[in-house]
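Lecture 7 notes: from sequence to structure.

We start with a single chain of 184 residues. Read the sequence below before looking at the structure.
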Amino acid sequence: MRADEGTVARRYARAALQYCNEHGGHELFEAGLRALVMAFKEQSVLETLLVAPLLRRDRKRDVVDEVGKQLRLTPSVVRFVKVLVDHARVGYLAAIQERFVELLDQQKGRVRAEVRTATVLAEPDRRSVASALSVHFGKLVICSFVQDESLFGGVVARVGNTIIDSSLLGRLERVRKRVRSMTV
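Now the structure, written as tokens:
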């Protein structure tokens, strides 16, 4: 991570959020940024073309237009990426997208959780977990689910720095600690 990455990402993410607050389209803007970040990961030459000094700025803007058409990006996302091109900030796009999501979540009063389970949960169970977490945190919780066979059963949810462990492994660990404290 570059020393100025957090500062640059925060500045551009705030500007993008302010634009969306004035013009709407928050979710479409975020989806466009996410699609572009995924395209950069899948086709690293694309990011290289836009970051490296191999192309003139006007050619880079043409590449952004073409990528925008291919990915069906909204005009606001295309204009935003052109601003990044003009200011040599395209290399910060992933950090900007991440910070934009954080700011949008704060504004909308929601948080994100990574939920690990031993098996893949059915949709009703996923909704139940998300609902329980939303009640617990008093905010809408958007969950991403990951299968983790090492848990043997139960659920481990991470929301920010908070971990809620109701897994079988976690319960066994808590019992083990209680037994150890009793024998000491």
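Residues 110-183 form one domain. Keep this in mind for problem set 3.
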